[in-house]
Amino acid sequence: MESSPSWDHEAVAAIVESLRRTPGALMRILRRVQDQLGWVPPPALPEIAHALNLSRAEVHGVASFYHDFRPTPPGRNVIRLCRAEACQALGAEALADHVRARLGLAFGATSSDRAFTLEPVYCLGNCACSPAGVINGQLLGRLTPASFDDALARLVRR
Amino acid sequence: MTPIPVKIFVPRDSGALSLGADGVAAAIAAEAARRGVAIKLVRNGSRGLYWLEPMVEVATGDARLAYGPVASADVPSLFDAVFLSGAPTSHPLALGPVAEIPALARQHRIVFARTGATDPLALDDFVAHGGFRGLARALELSGAALVEEVTRANLRGRGGAAFPAGVKWKTTLEQSDPVKFVVCNADEGDSGTFADRMLMEGDPLLLVEGMTIAGLAVGATRGFIYLRSEYPHALRTLMAALAAARARGYLGADVCGSGRAFDLEIVVGAGAYICGEETAMLESLEGKRGMVRYKPPVPAVAGLFGRPTIVNNVITLASVPAIVEHGGAAWNQIGYGRSRGTIPLQLAGNLARPGLVEVPFGLTLRELIHDFGGGTRSGRPLRAVQIGGPLGAYFPAAMLDLRVDYETIAEAGGLLGHGGVVVFDDTVDLARMARYAMEFCALESCGKCTPCRIGSTRGAELLDRVIRERGGAANLELLRELCDTMTAGSLCALGGLTPMPVMSALKHFPEDFGLAAAAPPP
Ligand SMILES: Cc1cc2nc3c(=O)[nH]c(=O)nc-3n(C[C@H](O)[C@H](O)[C@H](O)COP(=O)(O)O)c2cc1C
Ligand code: SF4
Ligand code: FES
What's chain B's Rg over C-alpha atoms? Predict the structure, then answer.
C-alpha cells in the first residue's frame, strides 16, 4: 500500500491557528487548506479536530461531504470540464470524450506521472459561453476539441 | 494642452475573460502605446450580450460605441478604423451605440442597469450612476417602513422558491433577539444560470447596498455572503468592493454617519449543490456538513447559530435598492399576474444569442428564445427547453407560447426557479437528460432521506435500462412509482423535484423512452 504523500504540516498549523476562533471555523479551515495545499490531507484531520475540540468523526464527516476537498493531491495540471445541462446542449459530452482520450484519463483520475488530474464540474456560471472548462484556474468558454488542445498547450505546466 | 484620454471599456466579467478579454485589453494598451495615443482602459462588467463578447466599448460624450466580438488580432484594424475618434466607423465589428443594440434596447434594466456600464470597483462611478440612493432613503426610514416597501413591491425571492421577501423580513423584524443576521445566497448552482455571477462581478456594490438595507430593515448588524467556489472572479471583485465600501464608511460601525452598524463577510463554499438550499447553507456557514434542516423553525425565526436570519438570493437583495429608492408601488406596477417587477432571465444552451435578458415578467418563451436568443446556434430545429435549472421541467417546442411568470410555468408543470432557460436542438435525447437528472441528484443528495439518496441511484439505473432496452412498460412503471416516492418522501426540493425533469421528459418526449410519440397539441 502507498503511504500518504507528504504535506506541509506547518502551513496547516498556521491556518488552523489563524482561523480557529472564527464562527464556523471548520469549513473555513478546510477551505483554506484546500486552496493552499491543493488537497486536504486526511492525516491532518485529527490535528484540526483537536484544535477545534471536535471529534475526528465530525471533522472527517465534513471533509468528505464537500466535493472540493480532495483527499489525495492533484496532478500538476488540473483540468475541469463542465458536464451540466447547458454545456451538454452544445456538445460537452463529445468534448469530454475528446479530453478523456487526449489525456488518457477518466473523470476523477490523476495520471500516474502526476501530470494531469481530470475533474467534472457542474456549472461554472459560464453557460452563455458553453461548453465551458477550466485549465489550471483559467476559465475557458465556447470550447471545441481544437480550442481545448490550443488552451492546453498554452496553459500546461511541465 | 494634453488631450483627455479616450475611455475604452473591456469587460473583466469572467465570461468575457473565458473568451480572451484579458488578451484584448493587453493588445489595446500595447497598440495605443505603439501609436502614442493616450487612452484610459476601464475594465467593466459584461452587458450580458455574450455572443458579442469580448465586447469593447469606446466612450464618446454620453454615447458609447460598441465593437464585438473582438479578438486580439482585430485590435490593429480597430485603431486603423479610427475607432478612438468616437465617430461611428465602418469596421466589420462595429455594433453602433451600445444602448441601441436591439437585444439591449428591448430590455428593461433596473437591477442590471449599471452592470457593464461602470467600473465595478470604482465606488465613485457607482455613486455617479445612482448608487447608494436606496441606502440614503433607507437611513431615513424605520425598519417597519422598509419592510412595508418590500412588501408593497410584492418582491418574490429570485433564488428559486419565489417566496415573498416582505413576509420573511417581517418575521425577522418581529423577533426580539438582539442578534440577527442577513445571509446572501450566492451559491448559484443551477445549470444555465449566471445572473448572480454577472451582478457580483459587474456591480458588486449594489449587492452591498441591498444587504445593508436588509440589515437596517430587520435590525441585523452582520451579513454573510455564501459564495460558491466556482466563482473566483466574483470573490475577488466582492472583496475589493467590501474594502472600498468600508474605507468610505458605507459599511462598518457607523454606516454613513448614521450611528448604525452593518458589516459583511464572504464565506466560500466547497462544491456542494445542496448548500444552495437555505438551511443546508446555514449548516455549512456554521462549519458543518451541508445537511438540510427540518422546518420549523424557519430561518427567519431561528437561522444562523440559532439567531433570526433572513436568507435571500443575490438578485432579490440587489432588487431592494431600486424598490426603496422609488417605492415599492413603482416596482409592483410592472410585471405580469402575481409576478411583479423585472426578472433577469438567463438564456443558455443551444442559442445563437445567449445571455442575460432583464425584462418585466410576462414575455412568452417564444419571444425570449427567438427574438432575444436568435434561435438555435446549430441552426437545427429547437426540440426542448429546460426552465429553472436541474430541477426544472423540459418543455417541447410546441409549448413556446407559455408566458414567463411563476404561476404560468407552474401551471404548465414546471418552475421558473432562478430564471435559467436552456435550449436544446433536435439532437437531444431526453431519456439521457432524464438519466442525467437522476445522476445529478444522486451526486448532490445530502443523504438525509432514503428516497432521495437511494431512489436517485435506482432511478439512474432504471433509466440506463430504459435507454438500453428502448423502453419497456415495466421499467417505465417502476420509474413512475419511484418518482412518486421521491416526490412524497423527500425533505427538500432536490429529492422532491428531481422527478420534474424526469417526468416532464417522459410526458412530452415519450418517443425517446421507446413509447409512441405524444399527440400534437390541438
Ligand atoms: C436543492 C436546492 C438548491 C438551491 N440552490 C439555490 C441557489 O443556488 N441559490 C439560491 O439563491 N437559492 C437556492 N435555493 C433556494 C433556497 O433554499 C432559498 O429558497 C433562497 O435562498 C431564498 O432566497 P430568495 O427568497 O431570495 O430566493 C435552492 C433550494 C434547493 C432546494
Ligand atoms: S431530499 Fe435529498 S438533498 Fe433534500 S434533504 Fe432529503 S436527502 Fe437531503
Ligand atoms: S452548464 Fe456549463 S457552465 Fe453552466
Answer: 24
